[in-house]
Design a protein that fits this description.
homodimer; 14 helices; Molybdenum Cofactor Biosythetic Enzyme, Chain A; globular; Maf protein; alpha/beta; 5-stranded mixed sheet; Alpha-Beta Plaits; 6-stranded mixed sheet; 17 strands; 24% strand
Chain lengths: 413, 413
């Protein structure tokens, strides 16, 4: 089956915002074996939307129209699609009353345009994350699906409503299956060249690599209809890959998140973590706290950006910094150990280094020391030499990931 | 003039990654008055790339081919474009030796595919942020521009090399000008309805709104060739908008960043800031540290996630928390004041609240108190009631922005 995605919005057409929805939807449809024949972007122009709708009619089985459902004067999608399909708008009274109550509770005046957020065509698609409704319209052997533009709303409606309904209505069984494996600390070209023999052994499994801001992702892809057979084949390939690359391996899964994984392991082993952060400036702790339920394994910690704060807040002897420098193994270990003791935690992590753009103590941007103190054991430290062309934020983000990897390696995968 | 953007990559076609480059480039070209006639995505398939190149020949003046310049086996762009245009590949010896020296310094073995990263067609476009070169090819009255896929490399090459060259070669003068104004704390529909009379007064200035994760952006757009005239008109419109909405105004500019602005003001006024963070877990301090040179105004601070850490690390009296609760004005103020005193800073900010998904002390997710202590003045606090459908990260991110806004309002815009 074929599908077409029409994205609506002046800001998309002019490149003022990036179209993340289109990629999100394409990925989901692709996994169902549905081919995206085209992705079109039109501006907030009712005639352009109507033309677009009329062009796609009798071509693709599924047509998605995304965006332009908001309350402001330039949100034209719903009436334009109604015109294009010769359909009528309906208002959902329950949504409208819900909307009125939210506005009154938040003491915001209701605008005439807000009424549009309670309208739909055909059947309504509920929206648990925002105000505008979606629409599901059948017309001959085509389905038109209208979804709102804000990504959090769009995604939850695709996952919770649209994909399950497509699977049900079209009786989809044969699927393109993928498995994502995540690695850190290995250059992409080295990793892929090491895996060449495995790719030759399994010609029906495609292995591709993608450099993400946080790590390198390997993606295994195959087509089949037997879940058990796919799993077996993926397991074989995964085992062969890990035989070579286990020390760089973080974990598996489409939505894999290293912080989630580490917090889960800490919870399971009833271990508390803390940290003292210099170049990362709180990003490690903030990443830990991004995981719901982090309070079980994290009480608090320190941001010690200046050398004086390392001494004053943590009690690191002045002499350690004077003798070894701020960007050193000794300082990283001391930050880890002192924060661990101050918080009475099981694990302390210390980050010190050069986020750039300027160098520090004669060390170039990208030089980072991460210390780890685990219980009463002798603290350890690891040095990163991140590439000089990376930016400040990329260096800070990667440092946090390497810190999490050190914990992962210590407490087991 | 017209332009076409061809994006290359299996992961784009299948929606595995989002095409941010295409939007970035479209925006830059749009501002030069260049119309994007189409944006096409093709997979990592040499024949598909060749077909695509041949289809666009003799249509658009400018053709961009983006991605697929890496060292791995599925990076085909350069040889495919050479074939499509009947051009030859050249190797830049200087780049090749630079690449060899980087690999040897980082102790990474060189792969055969790495050689491709030193190749180009026509004239090379240098890449200061990564390894692969770009290409600029003239063919009849068309220009073909090849750029690498990693966004940080792509963007810096567009800004530093491609845009200046287009302006120079095409003698571009008449431009579409935009001005971005940033607001926080005002619902989009209210803001836009308040501005209706201003839009009627200036029909040749379009005002659109966009809800960003951090704030609401208003975008003024007009077409003209006289810089001074555009500035005058934008200044008039801005003045009228601020007359109504000044208390929600953050600042102006395409790349406006509230943290940058606040750090700049703190530097200028020689004020030091610190904080104690509960629900934000270090995100406020990390945001401050994301600004280069933050060390002038920030020494360090606290993450006090658990109530015990608020007492233990900050010295807040147990009785304050017992009497008022963790999510309270009194606790937020105490966190602000105690962190300020501990660090000897001029400003202390305290964040406490419910990031969700679960409620806390009977308060729903989105309930946040932000305290601010300024020098020896009585600390103040502000309550946020962020919408319940926002996620945990959105609530944490917005809390940080509101905290920065409190500083902005205190020390002047």
């Amino acid at each position: 089956m074929n599908a077409e995605i029409i994205s609506v919005g002046d800001e998309l057409q002019r490149g003022e915002i990036t179209n993340t929805n289109s990629a999100y939807l394409a990925k989901k449809l692709n996994s169902l074996g549905i081919t995206i024949t085209s992705q079109v972007t039109v501006g907030d122009d009712p005639d352009a939307i109507v033309n677009c709708i009329q062009e796609v009619r009798n071509q693709s089985g599924l047509v998605f129209i995304c965006g332009g459902l908001g309350p402001t004067a330039d949100d034209f999608t719903l009436p334009a699609v109604a015109r294009g399909l010769g359909a009528v708008l309906a208002t959902d009274d329950q949504t409208w009353h819900h909307l009125l109550s939210i506005f009154s509770q938040r003491q915001i005046p209701v605008q005439p345009g807000n009424k549009r957020q309670a309208q739909y065509i055909g059947e309504l698609i509920p929206n648990s994350r925002g105000l505008a409704l979606g629409s599901w319209i059948e017309k001959g052997n085509q389905r038109f699906v209208i979804l709102p533009g804000p990504p959090s709303e769009f995604r939850s409606m695709v996952d919770q409503e649209v994909v399950p309904r497509i699977i049900r209505e079209y009786g989809i069984q044969k699927m393109i299956k993928t498995r994502a494996l995540h690695f850190l600390g290995r250059p992409e070209s080295t990793l892929m060249s090491e895996l060449k023999p495995i790719m030759d052994t399994f010609p029906d499994v495609t292995i591709t690599s993608y450099v993400k801001p946080t790590n390198i992702e390997l993606r295994l892809t195959t087509v089949a209809d037997d879940e058990a057979e796919i799993k077996l084949k993926f397991d074989q390939v995964t085992k062969m890959i890990l035989k070579k690359e286990d020390q760089y391996y973080l974990g598996m899964g489409e939505d894999f998140n290293l912080a989630n994984r580490v917090v889960e392991l800490l919870k399971r082993q009833k271990l508390k973590v803390t940290g003292a952060e210099s170049l990362t400036g709180g990003l490690f702790q903030s990443t830990i706290c991004s995981v719901p339920g982090a309070s079980e394994i994290f009480d608090g910690g320190f941001v010690t950006y200046a050398a004086a704060a390392k001494v004053g807040l943590l009690g690191i002897p002045d002499s350690v910094i004077k003798q070894h420098g701020v960007v050193s193994s000794a300082t990283a270990k001391a930050m880890a150990e002192h924060s661990r003791r101050k918080l009475g935690a099981d694990i302390g992590i210390g980050f010190t280094g050069v986020a750039g753009p300027d160098s520090l103590e004669g060390q170039p941007a990208g030089t980072v020391w991460i210390g780890m103190a685990y219980k009463d054991q002798e603290p350890v430290a690891k040095q990163l030499r991140l590439a000089g062309y990376l930016g400040r934020q990329e260096i800070r983000l990667l440092s946090v990931q390497y810190g999490l990897q050190m914990i992962l390696q210590r407490i087991g995968k």
